[in-house]
Amino acid sequence: MAAADQKPLGSGFHAKSEPHEILAGINLTGKTVVVTGGYSGIGLETTRALTNAGATVIVPVRDPAKAEENLATVEGDVSSATMDLADLDSVRGFASSVYDSIDSLDLLINNAGIMACPLDRVGPGWESQFGVNHMGHFALTKALLPLLEKASAPRVIALSSTAHKRNGILWDDIQFANTEYDKWVAYAQAKSANALFANALSRRMQRFGGRAFSVHPGGIFTPLQRHLPVEEQIELGWLNKDGSVPPTVAEIFKTPTQGCTTSLWAATSPLLNDMPGVYCEDCDVAQLIGEDSLPFEHCAPHITVDADAERLWDISEQLLATA
Q: pLDDT tens digits, residue range 53-65?
């Protein structure tokens, strides 16, 4: 992947395209998909859209009661199994259950995540946003790669965020062992890691015809904001003082159904066949940031650097091996 690849392809879709538009004419019957976080927010809408198109969807769930309630609203072939991205034994257990139920995996959509939460440690002491958003998905993807290899032209989608633009990987202190913790710096690092992961993974999948892409779903009000006090959302400009949504924000923000469409597009569009590892937004490849780029759009150069993607992959392998 090169920075020059980061330019829109003219997909014909837009920021607020709906799932039925993206999947029009696409039949996913016989395809098997794993969607992490596929029972809440945009993940639930991703699951719903995929099953509507004929896919069999497996959803790893951290909250079985909530998952049962929410997935009951989905028509089609959907099942769930317990998994917590913060617990590597749980990730391995879920992967083992998938091996017991299917022979190949066509799509893996790494949709789950946490955002701007207080400092916490998971696994062997990893900072939680890096540990859950990146390392949990890294472990899951590695475990499922042999099943992906058995599918025809499989794809992996990693949900990143426009927040990646704030900063890249803190190479000297990824886990905030000696650096004062900043929840937004940690979130930006994790989202940069998601994009770099897709970059490196796509090279590894090319040998068997696979692809990986990263995606910015857009601004959406979902449970992802659960760690943000209303006061902070007001300070960020997402809410008025009375709790209502400002018209300018409403114009930019997407509904949960619109928030899942870039993932659906990246998972199915033939336009991306020769664009491994690119970062997508608004149902197209994102362009690199420029002087006129708004804060919530486009792609920072640091997530397009192959050497950094490989460096992060090697570090992640080492972290996983010693966990």
A: 999 999 999 999 9
Per-residue pLDDT reduced to its tens digit, 306-320: 999 999 999 999 999
Q: 99 catalytic, yes or no?
A: no
| Superfamily of segment(s) 3-219+257-321 | NAD(P)-binding Rossmann-like Domain (3.40.50.720)
The residue count of the chain comes to 323
Give the amino acid at 321.
Answer: A
Residue numbers of the chain with a pLDDT score lower than 50? 223
Q: Assign residue 24 a region: left if phi > 0, alpha if psi is -120 to 50, beta otherwise? A: beta
Question: What phi, psi does 237 have (nearest 5°)?
Answer: 90, 5
Query: Which helix (DSSP H) or strand (DSSP E) does residue 67 occupy?
Result: helix 64-71
Please give the structure tokens belonging to residue 124: 């062997």
- For residue 231, the model assigns a pLDDT of 65
Catalytic choice (39, 99, 187, 279): 187
* Domain extents in the chain: 3-219+257-321, 228-253
